[in-house]
Specification:
Layout (H helix, E strand, L loop, with lengths): L3 H4 L4 H4 L18 H10 L4 E2 L19 E2 L48 H10 L10 H6 L33 H18 L5 H34 L4 H29 L18 E3 L2 H5 L11 E3 L3 H10 L1 H35 L3 H23 L5
């Protein structure tokens, strides 16, 4: 019975001279476990960069080695810098089969690959940054900002007379150090910024609107719209009378919407949202001019205007009943504004006498009125004039 060694064919004649005796063996990987090599490289210390050593003997590893470099690596060294000796780009070695030649590091390219920006980081930084320029702050952010003093850059046109305190010490030429004078300047500046709302018109305007004007206006609007909405929808079975009441209801809602936007822009300027221009029509709407308007001498002897008022009562009525802003005004004046107005009116009726009686909380009360006024003004503009998508 023949063995496996006897059955194996002799491959020597088949290979011939394909393998030269002087050629080194191919760089077979070492059979040592990877964990051992990692532990040896880590145990060499943080000041040297080492690679697993290998002998040049036949049948063993033929990896090229790099002697330990005297490089001071600490936390300030970039992780992937192209010029860093520890970077993979600079540690690429030219593979030379001759063991007598010292391996030379491959030079990095003159222009490394530019670093890209992470989409996640930019999105999160944008989302976590300050408020959007066209988006008002939330109610929680508004309440939190009540207890913060205003920034010096937060000045309107009526506040240009505000001049910051000088930074030099109050006593020039004295033997005292500058530390007490700097502390005195900071303390004086803080107190001046704290009392500043008492001399600013916009804070008083916001308080006057929330305390005096807002509640009577909201009450009158709510009574008018509630009565006409209830009677109009109830009498729709008596179609002529119900249609007339619904017409007066929507017409009043659009007129009150125009008045609400005017009051908000007057008492709480600048608003978080820009007002629509031209303003939303109450009843008569604009349309593009036609040749018939020019033939009827609608423009007189002047030039042809691109937009003219619609003179058809039927078209204006149909447009008013089909316009979604009419029903948004109803929802705002019947649901949203009464709750906000009632809450803010009770709040300022209680806090205003106490704050001015104690004097010290008065600037904080004015800042609160300003913040809450801007917030509810943004709600009004968003609910009455902006498109909801």
């Amino acid at each position: 019975m023949t063995t496996m060694q006897d059955a194996a064919p002799d491959l020597g004649p088949l290979l011939g001279n394909a393998v030269d005796a002087h050629d080194p063996p191919p760089p077979y990987p070492s059979h040592r476990p990877r964990r051992t090599r990692q532990r040896r490289s880590l145990a060499s210390g943080s000041e040297h960069v080492g690679f697993p050593t290998a002998t040049t003997g036949e049948g063993q590893d033929n990896y090229e080695i790099l002697d330990t470099l005297a490089v001071n690596i600490n936390e300030t060294v970039p992780l992937l810098s192209p010029d860093s000796p520890s970077s993979p780009r600079s540690l690429r070695l030219s593979r030379n089969p001759n063991p007598n030649i010292t391996p030379v590091p491959v030079n990095p390219p003159p222009f490394p690959r530019p670093r890209t920006t992470s989409y996640t980081s930019t999105y999160l930084s944008t989302a976590s940054s300050g408020t959007h320029p066209t988006r008002p702050p939330s109610l929680a952010h508004t309440v939190f900002s009540m207890f913060q003093s205003d920034d010096e850059m937060d000045l309107d046109e009526n506040d240009r007379d505000y001049a910051p305190l000088p930074t030099h010490p109050p006593r020039e030429g004295s033997e005292e150090s500058s530390a007490p004078s700097a502390a005195w300047n900071r303390r004086s500046r803080s107190w001046r910024m704290y009392w500043r709302p008492l001399a600013r018109r916009r804070y008083w305007m916001s308080l006057a609107h929330l305390l005096v004007v807002n509640f009577p206006f909201a009450l009158a609007v709510w009574v008018y719209l509630f009565v006409f909405t209830l009677t109009g929808t109830t009498l729709l079975m008596a179609l002529p009378l119900g249609a007339v009441l619904c017409f007066l209801n929507l017409l009043g809602a659009r007129a009150f919407s125009r008045a609400e936007l005017f009051l908000q822009s007057y008492f709480h300027d600048p608003l978080p949202y820009p007002l629509p221009y031209p303003p939303l029509p109450i009843f008569s709407r604009f349309r593009e001019s036609t040749d018939e308007d020019e033939e009827s001498r609608l423009f007189g002897s002047g030039h042809r205007a691109p937009l003219v008022y619609e003179r058809s009562f039927y078209k204006n009525t149909y447009a008013m009943f089909t316009d979604p802003t009419s029903y948004r005004a109803l929802f705002y004046f019947l649901v949203i504004k009464p709750s906000i107005t009632l809450l803010f009116t009770l709040l300022f009726l209680v806090l205003t006498p106490l704050s001015f009686a104690l004097i010290i909380p008065a600037p904080m009360l004015l800042r609160m009125a300003r913040r809450l006024g801007l917030w509810q003004a943004g709600v009004a503009v968003e609910g009455l004039s902006l498109d909801i998508s």
